[in-house]
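Bug #77: duplicate submission created two jobs. Keeping one. Sequence:
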Amino acid sequence: MFEPIAQTPRYRLVAQAIAEKIRQGAFPAGEKLPPDRVLVDELGVSRATLREALIALEVKGYIETRFGSGAFVLGHPEADDSVAVEPDVATAALVPVVPVTGPFEALEARRLIEGELAALAAQSITPSALDTLWGCLQALEASEPDWDPEADSRFHEVIAEAAGNAVLGQLAAQFWADQEANPLWAAIQTAVEDSNRRPQLVAEHEAIIEALTEGDADAARAAMQAHLDSFARTLLAQWDAPDSNSAEAAPHARLRASLRSS
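Kept job's structure:
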């Protein structure tokens, strides 16, 4: 009877609030936005949600992040309403909700769920499954110049299957499906995987396999969580990278370009 209504992600609500202040002149062009800690406190959101909102605002031309200096207002695109949100609260209460998340929220959830999946898998994983994981790792090492997303997703899928918990496995599968359908996530992930951290990514996957091979649940959980934490830190670092022609700034430039074209 009803069409599902997409739930507005929190980072878009935050982006809308800041964009509205910019349009009202509260933050004039050329002025620096308040520090993250101030915005987090006043808006009542996490730093991850704020960061996603600032990324969205930079992509749309409202602000510019300057390495080591913070975010500065560029102006307010008059014709741009892409960060505007007008949720119909009354209608939304009557129909199914389709969740939409930002990349940091997804990583936080994956850390919890996939960490426990790895711990469970350590207690029951088979030699055949371990062989499959090593095969995925070899594919990741050999995937030049591009990262192999299929080998990566298969790696995590095998661990979820080995855990033997269908509910947690379905949650993990949904995370991956949501990521693939999210242009913001895809652009960010591509830029991060295209950076110089490929050896680190491979080492993190290998540490997970080793913990699983030893049957050490605590080590497997820690290795999986460390892998996802590392990715989140790199994501933040890529966005805050120097905006210059230096080699270390190249992934950041590609990230901005890919986001603006998505």
